[in-house]
Amino acid sequence: MKLKHLSTAMILATLPATGVFAAALDRSGQSVSAFLQPGNYFEAGISVLDPTVKGQSTAATGSQNISDMGGDYQFYNAALKLQLTDYLSFGLIYDQPFGADAEYHDSTLFTNAAGNTKVEVDTQNISMLFGVQPIKNVNLYAGGVYQTVKGGVQLRGAGYGGINAFGGYNADIPEDSAAGWLAGAAYQIPEIALKASVTYRSEIKHKVNIDESSAGAGPIAAILNNATGSTDITTPQSVNLDLQTGIMANTVAFANVRWVNWKDFAIRPYAFGVAANAATAAAGGKGFDLVAYTDDQWSVNAGVGRKLNEQWAGNVSVGWDSGAGNPITTLGPTEGYWNLGVGVQFSPAANYFISGGVKYFWLGDAKAQSGAQFNTDSYLADFTDNHAIAYGMKIGYRF
């Protein structure tokens, strides 16, 4: 199952910062491309995101400027693939698939004397894959996924009803682990640098005892300070489709299509849910979620890579992301993006390389809602004309 040197080099000439900004909490893109490399292979990389997300509150909420609330963050990935026999392969992939880092600083909608509205979410995945190559051009693979998740949310300001309502809410999500699975298939024709793969990842269900409290006083704050119980957090299922083919000498085209089931994702911490039900009971309401999304995410990244000589290769790419609905949560007020990226790879020797890349994102305009506004037409603020820059670096080694 060996690829020619040209197609091998071009597969590697991909942008490390592929999935660093996407809809909802999606970050890494959950690629298995390292597992589909020929022979024995190792890679490790880092991606950094620098977003700028500013907005303006609506006239109904006081017409305030909202300064940049998007936090910078970085995350890592690594992969090991072993070709055990001509027909069997094994792989380990580490990534940080979902995350968030944001904090408001000035608007009274999202700040008060008790602090700022902020959110931080961290996840880690280790995927263990086993592959079978029953014939030369086909690879069937499946495996288990071990995932951890932790985070914290602090709501402040008039946008959440003030400190004595949900504007004094705190949630500390301790690290929890759970398991899921993945499966896929790949087909390749090395002579024309053709490779196609499809990978499904299951949802992963966590049950967490979140530490919830309130900085305020009154009936809602009393519930938030005293209600105890477990919370279900289910990270979404997804499908990745990857395509690559040679289009002329020393040149390949590549594309990735990704679907993530955010429409069925919601977080309603136990005490928060009890308080939300109490707050809406008089009006016949059914409460509301801390975080929820109305649409599934679709994204497409496509580009062209070219081998310049035996040591240098590069690529250009363009990407589009649908977002996960609009209006959207105040904890992540963007709706999709367009991006443009460039990458370069240097191979000092045939068996190892260093690559780097940068992407510029034009972030989609969004209307931001608090949890109480989900499934309504009202919203707190508009976030427009925002952008992000992502950087990435990766090393790879064949042995």
Mean of the pLDDT scores? 90
Strand order in space, largest sheet: 1-4-5-9-10-11-12-16-17-20-21-23-24-27
In total, how many beta strands?
27
- What is the highest CATH level, the class? Mainly Beta
Helix content: under 10%
What is the rounded Rg? 23 Å
Number of helices: 3
CATH topology: Porin
- CATH H-tier superfamily: Outer membrane protein transport protein (OMPP1/FadL/TodX)
CATH arch. level architecture: Beta Barrel
What is the overall shape? elongated
Percent in strands: over 45%
Largest sheet: 14 strands, antiparallel, barrel
Number of domains: 1
Which stretches of 5+ consecutive residues score pLDDT under 50? 1-17
First-to-last CA distance: 15 Å
SSE run: HEEEEEEEEEEEEEEHEEEEHEEEEEEEEE
Determine the structural class based on helices, strands and strand pairing.
Answer: mainly beta
